[in-house]
Amino acid sequence: xxxxxxxxxxxxxxxxxxxxxxxxxxxxxxxxxxxxxxxxxxxxxxxxxxxxxxxxxxxxxxxxxxxxxxxxxxxxxxxxxxxxxxxxxxxxxxxxxxxxxxxxxxxxxxxxxxxxxxxxxxxxxxxxxxxxxxxxxxxxxxxxxxxxxxxxxxxxxxxxxxxxxxxxxxxxxxxxxxxxxx
Length: 182
Prior knowledge:
By secondary structure, the chain is an alpha/beta fold. The protein is 26% helix and 19% strand.
């Protein structure tokens, strides 16, 4: 099974690989420019082989400054990631390929399946993000089983005094649920 993975955006992460007989193999990784992304898509338009394309999804969060207080608020965003995802979906429709969009919350698990540590906000990891999405896809669809350590990690302590309290986030669009019996 041929797999293509993408982490869309200004710096496009790309990975190509396969899963055959339970073996996960990566054959190519690169960071693409928009021009090389366009050329890659055009060169594969109308091909006659089967493939699966896994792509990190992009969801617009209506809350301003949704990136951990970094100030990014989508005001003058060109929607580059959304356009790239649209091009990939069209490519899959034309070629009759399988398309799966994964939320970015799947990356930490994908990194873990590869034996790597995920670092939120780390720069320059777009190619590895694409590989992590492929790894998650393989495990999710039971095509690949990652190496499992002989010794399981120690369980989390039941002592709750040193655990951080859960953070509850409310934003302007959140409203208290209405009581239907009132």
